[in-house]
Design goal:
mainly alpha; single chain; 0% strand
Length: 218
Amino acid sequence: MKIALESLRDFMKNKPHKLWVLFLTTLYISAFTFGGGFVIVTFMKHKFVDELHWINEQEMLDFTALAQSCPGAIAVNAAILVGWNVYGLAGMLVATLGTILPPMIILSVVSFFYAIFSANVWVAIVLKGMQAGVAAVILDAACSLGESVLKEKSSLSIFIMTAAFVCDFFLGVNVVYIILVAACIGIIQFIWYQYKPFFLKRTQEKTQKQKCLQETKL
């Protein structure tokens, strides 16, 4: 409740223009993007990272991973994370609203005229032509996010990315299992880096004790 009141106070006093830009941006992206959540995530990266510079590439990469691994639509999950990062609770609500409004309105119209749309040859041709464009946009997103991983120059991250691609594309492993395994590896890596100095110190102490014992025997 306290967080909600603080976010509302910020909305009323500090830079409401930023929230308006956030709403219009998510509304525009959601209204004119076809092909699924990853396409919307791609346009979010171009807008919020490359143009507005509200978040960086690493944050967008993390948001994409979280949006994919959490239940629900990827586009909505990504909008929640981006909105929260940009302007807290108010930003999350505004970004979510901007993301869900266009598909809700469009799907309501389509469902009402479903019989006409399903039998229309021109609609089928347009949707068929859009598939190639959607594939290109998704490929652009994959290359861009993959480039961010390569820039880290982390052997483990590159190995996880390559292994995940092979398991998904060639072996047909369920994406949920891939995400869970990658998450477990990330947790293990974090624990190792956190406690690495402690383990090294204990190892050095044991080595010194062994040397002392050997010198004492001699």
